[in-house]
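USER:
I wish I could look at a protein chain and see how it folds. I am handing you a single protein, as its sequence and its fold in token form. As I understand it, each token names a local backbone shape. I hope you can help me see how the letters and the tokens relate. The protein I mean follows directly.
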Amino acid sequence: MFRQMECFVAVVENHSFTKAAEQLNMSQSALSQRIKELSETNHLNLIEREGRGFKVTEAGEFFYRHCRGILENVTQLVAETQEIERQQNASYTLRLGYLRKFGSQEFLQAVAHFSKEFPKVNVRIHSGSYQELFDLIRDDQIDLNFSDQRHALSNVYRNEFLTSASYMVVLAPTMFAKQSDVIDTTELIDTPCILVAGADEFESEQQYYREILGIRSEFRIAKSFGEAQMLATAGQGYVVVNSRTASSVDTSVNKVVKLIDHGRDLTQRYYAYWKATNSGFYIETFVELLKAQFQ
């Protein structure tokens, strides 16, 4: 039936049996027979003869529109399958990026499952800050990112939601002693916010904290999370974490409190995203494996 559908679409688009037969490299009689078989086998009245010409019936127009979509989908399916076969026969490298601050447990598990399933595929991993990872995928230097959402989702990329976490702050137990489980950004204005960031990302992190989280504190920089915790323990500021990364906080010397902004809950959302023009079997398979780690 697929070949019959091809013949019908060619006749409609060429408005001629003769031109359609030439396009399909077949005789006009063979083409007419295919159209006849299509109509009679399926009890359809698709074309009506008018003298030496013909017209497409309303049912025929409906059938044509859907036939064209099916043929296009089949063409795409064949192309994608051929690409998978080409990748299997060639040395393929899947380039992945993940947000350094999130931690790597779920990401590591997904990589392990992928490598076991596709041992011939090379996997190259890069960890970095949000801006660093975004620049890499924008410039086609990596295929997929696992990072948090900081801007409106773009149609340029395919975005797969993975998980979310509430923002929290790490404080010395003696600071804000009356606070139990929640603290507002308005209460932290006079307390420095300690950022774990390199010199190249300090400015962009400050902008994110101010514009998205509503933090109005002055900022201090720490080279590592361990250093940031020590500064917090000494009462020299607070560190912003989330409900997932808070597990790495030493609660014997610091306390972890939920952060809100003017009464508004603050949530960090994580996505896997990749360029829509670069979607393929291995990228989509890895995304499914990564999603499974958060379910």
The chain has a mean pLDDT of 88.
